[in-house]
Design the sequence.
């Protein structure tokens, strides 16, 4: 059987991942619809979580690491009074406790304790690996291993709703933050235990939820052809739009593509930069070297 042709399509798709889909299943569905030659995502989102999963197509995969390391934003619901083995609604119930009378002020005071730089112990039900094996596989065998605390930063943590045995929160945090671990720790701080009942990712800097696309929209666009699908893609430089732009002429672009640093008048004096040939053509990423020249770091082939 003849394999379908693959397209050299480049850009970022901000997928609204459905609940109960793995990140890899979502990636493969997008890759099939676009018939993309190359695709990747920017870090797994739990199957029980919905929301923003940036999909990198083509040359965008060279920039995926910058999104993997970016700050993330979430909205989540905690179910109070119930502690589970996995920290979410799918896990075995370990302990139930009365919630008692909680005030908004008391919950906000507890949330404040988890704002800023904190230490988290990664949950056993996580993709973190020990000797090459994900922790969740060990947990499913009933094996628990010691985990070292990890430093993460909670930039913002805000209470949206407190109603009975549920509370809703909004959070912006550094990479590597486990929302399930935060919910469990918050439950202990409130004296009743808790687990995640619902989780939605609303941001992966510099992207927010405003440009997310559902799977249903993708299928509708696919029926109209590739042009309709491609209209949903964000340009490659959108992932690093916060970095300063350096524009070079054709001769400098030639040397950059040979891997050689170039001197660019009025370039920044340090840090990473976006490189352009003229006004529009995005070449990739560079870094200002100690001698003030612009060194190529991640150039694109398109």
Sequence:
């Amino acid at each position: 059987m003849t394999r379908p042709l693959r397209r050299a399509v480049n850009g970022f798709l901000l997928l609204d991942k459905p609940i109960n889909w793995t990140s890899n299943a979502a990636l493969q569905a997008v890759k099939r619809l676009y018939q993309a030659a190359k695709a990747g995502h920017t870090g797994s989102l739990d199957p029980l979580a919905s929301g923003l999963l940036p999909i990198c197509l083509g040359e965008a995969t060279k920039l995926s690491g910058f999104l993997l390391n970016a700050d993330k934003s979430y909205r989540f619901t905690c179910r109070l009074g119930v502690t589970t083995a996995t920290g979410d609604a799918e896990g075995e119930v370990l302990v139930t406790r009365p919630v008692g009378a909680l005030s908004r002020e008391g919950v906000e005071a507890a949330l404040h304790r988890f704002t800023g730089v904190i230490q988290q112990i990664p949950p056993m039900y996580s993709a973190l690996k020990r000797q090459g094996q994900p922790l969740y596989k060990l947990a499913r065998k009933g094996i628990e291993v010691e985990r070292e605390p990890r430093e993460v930063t909670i930039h913002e943590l805000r209470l949206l709703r407190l109603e009975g045995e549920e509370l809703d929160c909004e959070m912006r945090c550094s990479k590597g933050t486990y929302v399930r671990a935060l919910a469990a720790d918050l439950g202990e701080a409130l004296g009743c235990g808790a687990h995640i009942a619902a989780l939605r990712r609303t941001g992966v800097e510099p992207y927010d939820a405003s440009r997310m696309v559902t799977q249903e929209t993708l299928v509708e666009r696919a029926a109209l052809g590739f042009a309709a699908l491609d209209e949903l893609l964000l340009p490659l430089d959108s992932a690093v739009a916060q970095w300063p732009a350096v524009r070079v002429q054709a001769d400098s672009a030639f040397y950059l593509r040979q891997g050689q640093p170039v001197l660019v008048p009025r370039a920044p004096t340090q840090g990473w930069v976006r490189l352009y040939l003229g006004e529009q053509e995005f070449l990739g990423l560079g870094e200002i070297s100690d001698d003030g020249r612009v060194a190529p770091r991640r150039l694109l082939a398109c």
